[in-house]
Amino acid sequence: MRIKDIMVPWNGKKRIKDGINKNCCIYSVNVAHALWDNSAYEVIDDADNKVGEIDRDLFRYLINSTNTNIISNIVDKFQEGVIAIDAEGRIFYINDAYTKILGVPISKIIGKQMRKVEPGAEILNVLRTKIPIIKDKQYIKTLDKYVSVHIYPIEQDGELKAVVSIFTDATEIVKLGRKVEEANKAVLRFKEQIEAQNKLLKLEIIGESSNFLKTVSQALIVAKTEASVLIEGENGTGKELIAKLIHSNSERKSQPMIIVNCAAVPESLIESELFGYEEGSFTGAKSGGKMGKFELANGGTLFLDEIGDMPMAMQAKLLRVLQEGEIEKIGRQKNVPVNVRLIAATNQPLERMVREKKFRRDLYYRLNIVEIKVPPLRERGEDVGLLANHFLQKYNKKYGKQVFFSQRVHSFFYSYSWPGNVREMCNCIEYAVIMCLDDCFDVVYLPPHIKESIGEITEERNRSEYTHGTLKEAVKSFEKKMITDVLSESNGNRSKAMRLLGLSRRTFYRKLKEYKIVSV
């Protein structure tokens, strides 16, 4: 805060003998100035021209307050807005960022009572209760802005000395959130573009369910920004594919995307893995040193998968990199600047981990500027068939086969809960295509751990299908379903179906007519 920020225009009266330069920082003004016996002090420019004046009482108050309350010059350089009041509720400090964010000149409110400037301000509640307040999104109606606010009491020897409020402008983040709400519209426009559709197919991002399309749309919207992204979802849902989609549609798409699985890196190695090291920095260090993942991703995107498994000590260092834009390479004295867009993913409930103090709150909010949730496959009913057919075509081509799904397998896919999600389906179909001895992919070719679920699902389905009605009706329903399934498995070959069912030609065709089974 400089003298020019608190001065008032010169009233044109006779000049006072002594003056203070307008560019002088208030904290560096000689305290003796405050003892001048004048009703006001004049402010001069570098050419010794008078440009304004300062009220004596206000000036003395600010000199005393900024010396009794621990306010450093460095706060003036914060990107976050800072305002402080004393124990009486009087405003004694405001930094430049505050005026830029809220559009309020320092001279309008400095030295005034906060209850008169903004009667309902949260900072007054902290002044009264001495309890900190943290709000990640607060709307200021008079300014039409959203801010993230952290307010803390400052005490000395058990006595309240001041209250400081630190906040950032969250308006752009809120606007981004509103755009995300238009997810389905954006993704429909995207799907109309052939080139964009090909990108999705190349990444194996396949689906038409509304909740999955919303996820894709969110990824495409945030891709055009530099915001950090936190992708949440169960194992196997495709979090890495969503991260790749964001990178490939961003301004950084021509630069590398580096992937690190935090759960797969031992705690003792994760620092050197991320930040690298200099030659000779420790026993066993490679000759010439090693570049870390941050350096490798410089100019591009760094994807930290399973971020919830990152050790707490490493979380603090990661936070510092995000704040400073520099890494501290092991064995190097000087920090290395990096320009990296960070995307993180987790299958763990980070919000709960924050409450349990298992994950740093400040890092969580740094990562979670935009949160994208990837739905599990069991909540994407419309996509099961699309994904299954895609993987079948993929592995038929890979292994030179022409395998097709039997009706029983097709029905089973829709009944199975897919605990391993899309990854489990992909592996299941590749296994079956490899093991198939003929062209029909029947339940016998399912992986053993999945095959065990058939009995349970079939029993449940039978209970629901045959609980109501007479025995005669249940038998008819069962016969019709069995004939339909066998015809499907026989690829419509009626002679083969008759043989598998053990029916005579006459009985078989009578049943087709009775149950109105035209063709399969």
From TrEMBL:
InterPro entries attached to this UniProt entry: AAA+_ATPase, AAA_lid_NorR, Homeodomain-like_sf, HTH_Fis, P-loop_NTPase, PAS, PAS-like_dom_sf, PAS_fold
Domain Sigma-54 factor interaction: 205-434
Domain PAS: 67-114
Keywords of this entry: ATP-binding, Coiled coil, Nucleotide-binding, Transcription, Transcription regulation
Pfam families according to UniProt: AAA_lid_14 (PF25601), HTH_8 (PF02954), PAS (PF00989), Sigma54_activat (PF00158)
Coiled-coil boundaries: 173-200
UniProt xrefs under NCBIfam families: sensory_box
Protein name: Sigma 54-interacting transcriptional regulator
